[in-house]
UniProtKB/TrEMBL annotation:
Domain of life, source organism: Bacteria
InterPro entries, per the entry: c-di-AMP_regulator (IPR053154), YbbR (IPR012505)
Protein name per UniProt: CdaA regulatory protein CdaR
């Protein structure tokens, strides 16, 4: 009896040890997996490239005028915090800036280093380009006349500029002293996508230009103005060439004709007008036995004729 009880006790001890070991291994594996998951989350890195980030240039705006530089840069962001990264990607919630500090730089051309400032913790950034060239000059202002020259490319075929009315005659231009000396006038610039086939009335930008039309870096005040451009069709006055067809009545000896007008106005491109010396009309005298007036249509290649018809008065002479 004692032996049997002893054997059963050993059996239960072995079973208990087995399950204890099994529970230990399971707990160890769970702890390891949890630790591995936590480590993976800590070391995971997110990244994003932001294009066209404005460059904030620090300089004495009262004393100097800067030009010739890039206005935007590209920033490559990395972070282990996805929420922070998304916040910096969004322009409305962004904290960082790209800055070029010219506080202690003298006039001339300088190679300014770009820095990313205001970046939250747990984030890194790289900016491209790392440096930008900037021209620095002493600030100056001067008054210039405003002109407007409409490019032939901005006038539709068959039209020409009749008149231009600009809202302002003079403006103040601010730039560096060297650039200011190169400015010839201020130009009222028509929108590049505008081709005139009718009158234009709108607001346009003002830009300082050299005598050869080169746009120069400057601040124009005011920066915009109202402009009215009137255009009209290219026209030409040409004679009517009237042809008489048909059979003269045997009761008549002759028929004379007189046009209600001798010339008409034609419109078209300059090339088409140059090729047009007259317009054609034909009157048929078949069956005419007495004085009569007829309407005759006029024609010519590739041009518009005004008026398109004329009246021909036929005067008969009997035998």
């Amino acid at each position: 009896m004692i032996k049997k009880w002893f054997n059963q006790s050993i059996f239960y001890v072995i079973i208990s040890l087995f399950f204890s070991l099994l529970l230990f291994l399971v707990a160890k594996a769970t702890t390891y997996n949890a630790s591995g998951t936590q480590l993976s989350r800590v070391t995971e890195t997110y990244s994003h490239t932001i294009k066209s980030v404005p460059i904030d240039i620090k300089y004495d705006t009262n004393k100097y005028f800067i030009s010739g530089y890039s206005y935007e840069a590209e920033v490559y962001l990395t972070s282990t915090n996805r929420i922070k990264l998304d916040s910096e990607i969004n322009e409305d919630t962004r904290h960082f800036k790209v800055v070029a500090d010219l506080s202690n730089v003298k006039p001339g051309t300088t190679n300014a280093k770009l820095k990313v400032v205001g970046l939250p913790r747990d984030m890194n950034a790289a900016v491209n380009p790392k440096n930008i060239a900037i021209n620095i000059g002493k600030k100056a202002s001067k008054t210039f006349k405003v002109k407007s020259t409409i490019s032939p490319d901005q006038v539709a075929d068959g039209y020409k500029v009749d008149s231009v009315d600009i809202g302002v005659s003079e403006v103040t231009v601010t730039s560096n002293e060297s650039t200011l000396e190169q400015i010839d006038h201020v130009e009222a610039i028509m929108p590049s996508d505008k081709v005139l086939s009718s009158d234009f009335n709108g607001t346009v930008n003002l830009q300082a230009v050299a005598a050869d039309g080169t746009i120069l870096a400057s601040i124009v005040d005011p920066a915009k103005t109202q402009i009215k451009v009137s255009v009209k069709k290219l026209t030409k006055e040409v004679p009517i060439n009237l042809s008489v067809t048909g059979v003269l009545s045997d009761k008549l000896s002759n028929i004379n004709y007189k046009l209600s007008q001798e010339t008409v106005i034609v419109s078209g491109t300059q090339e088409e007008l140059d090729a047009t010396d007259s317009v054609e009309g034909t009157v048929d005298i078949t069956g005419v036995s007495k004085d009569i007036s007829k309407t005759v249509s006029l024609s010519a290649s590739n041009v518009t004729i005004v008026p398109q018809t004329v009246t021909v008065k036929l005067t008969t002479t009997k035998k």
